[in-house]
């Protein structure tokens, strides 16, 4: 069965980052033309050049913010003129803020002396930032980039959620809640678009060891896992971290015609983390 990916046009937000740069490469490897949208203009410009060189498929870096509708509309104009009508959207821009992260996993009596490390020390500014980037940052690009798909009654949207969307992880209250909102919105929009030929799904990556979180999960000096790293591995039945490359199969499946009757699902790619009760 043909996947129908070849020669399609995909917009990837957050393409300057660890996960979505790999996603963009896997799309290019399948002959998909990519528009790499990120606030980090330098990163996406460099990536576009790398992709064109390695895969011989058109790729463009398009600086824009997922929180700024005007910049997204401007980006769409550029994408349409350089690559044509949009077929796929990957909503990858996202992340956490230390302002909405507690210092302790669970509050105990002794924390009454240092409330800053608990829920009471969290800043609303942090909640706003995290909800804006992950939740509104999924909605706004979808509003702008899905119109081409709606007009031609064909297309696929993949949102990037997280393991913390099913059950919150300790400390990262806002990030967990914002990704739960992404799952909920994925289902809502899948129903809303279901008669317009546009499918909406999400991927929930489990724990990946990336440059951004390496310092949290492994001890810089010894290379041994930190206490949080040990907990993660103990609760991942496959007993290892995933890699950004291991998200690619699920992404290509959700975009391609192989999943033509699949909409409104959030697929965990997590080495079994979400299936394991810990016992
Ligand atoms: P990353 O920080 O490497 O990449 C995020 C990218 O988003 C960066 O290039 C950044 O410049 C861009 N960005 C930030 N604000 C933006 C804005 N307003 N407009 C446009 N671009 C913006 O992060 P990552 O680890 O590659 O994560 C990518 C996605 O995967 C995120 O949605 C994240 O929540 C999710 N995720 C990551 C992990 C993980 O272990 N790294 C696990 C589960 C889910």
TrEMBL record:
Identification of the protein by name: SDR family oxidoreductase
Family to which this protein belongs: Belongs to the short-chain dehydrogenases/reductases (SDR) family.
Pfam families attached to this UniProt entry: adh_short_C2
Keyword terms of this UniProt record: Oxidoreductase
Coiled coil: none
UniProt cross-references to InterPro entries, sorted A to Z: NAD(P)-bd_dom_sf (IPR036291), Sc_DH/Rdtase_CS (IPR020904), SDR_fam (IPR002347)
